[in-house]
Amino acid sequence: MATITESKTQIDRSSGSNLSHVTSDDPYQTALASLERDGFVVLPASLFPSFDLPTLREAASRSTKAARSGQWPYIRTLPKQFPPWPQDPSNGIWGVQHLLHPSNPDHLTFAKSYFDTELLKYVKTLIGCEEEDLVMELYNMLVRPDKKFELRWHRDDIPADATPEQEMERLQKPGYHAQWNLALFDDASLIVVPGSHKRARTEFERNADPYEQNMPEQLVVKLKAGEVAFYNNNILHRGAYDPEKERMTLHGSIGSSKAGGERARNVLQHGVGEWVGQYDFDDFDPDVAKRASSMREKLIEMGKRSGDVGYYSKDE
Ligand SMILES: O=C(O)CCC(=O)C(=O)O
């Protein structure tokens, strides 16, 4: 897949996984070129020396334990794919929501990685915006379900029944955000169709089984611990989870204040607006506190502007 390392840009499907190896003196622009071309890019852990994996894993384990035992109500529950999720973990969970919630005892640890200076340099380049445009959005965690579970093929913000014209209309608009997976353990759960973020679905894709195991050109995004995959959330993708394999992958997004109502729904349907006003930054480093509070204010403004946003696919 798109891995920023040595040699030149290419997609290598021979391994059945990570493809494009890109070089450039400017890793930010290189990442952007890969994201635009393939719809995703994988950045090596070495680009993010300030991510403290052991500390993040400890925090992630505590949060997951609380979520599985019913002590943390913000969860993604089986068998539901899209929000809203019930708060009852008895069918098992596949995600822990709202890592930055002020009542999470580990929210400062997660905030350090979410507001990380180096990460935000990539975010700004990938969105094409300045620091003052950044909007706080979501920070969740995707975890191993207790039984086999898969997500259907989807684009995050284009319904399956969209016509090719509707798909293209949406895909041609800027996304005004960046979305990423930061793997705390090796992770091969995300499957994408490279390049599908720029085109309507083919007849095959449109008529395929929602859980089609062999979509033409599909690629498993294989992440090693510490790697970060940025991806266009409207790339055709799905998740396929192995209950035997530990998964704790931080799943974040940050937006731009230029985004409109579609982005507001994608973010606010997760319920972040209900608590973000309580967020205080007293215990943050002063620089991070300044950045975080400005990003938070813009999320609150987005909530006020957009009102009741509804859900992408409430019953699925
Ligand atoms: O598990 C993953 O990495 C993919 C999750 C996903 O597709 C989603 O949340 O819409």
Automatic annotation (TrEMBL):
Regions of biased composition (Polar residues) lie at: 1-22
Q: Which GO terms describe its molecular function?
A: dioxygenase activity
Which stretches of sequence are listed as region Disordered?
Answer: 1-24
UniProt-listed Pfam families: PhyH (PF05721)
Q: Gene3D superfamilies given for it? A: q2cbj1_9rhob like domain (2.60.120.620)
Task: Report whether Iron-sulfur shows up as a keyword of the record.
Answer: no
Q: Which UniProt keywords apply?
A: Dioxygenase, Oxidoreductase
Name of the protein this chain belongs to: Phytanoyl-CoA dioxygenase family protein
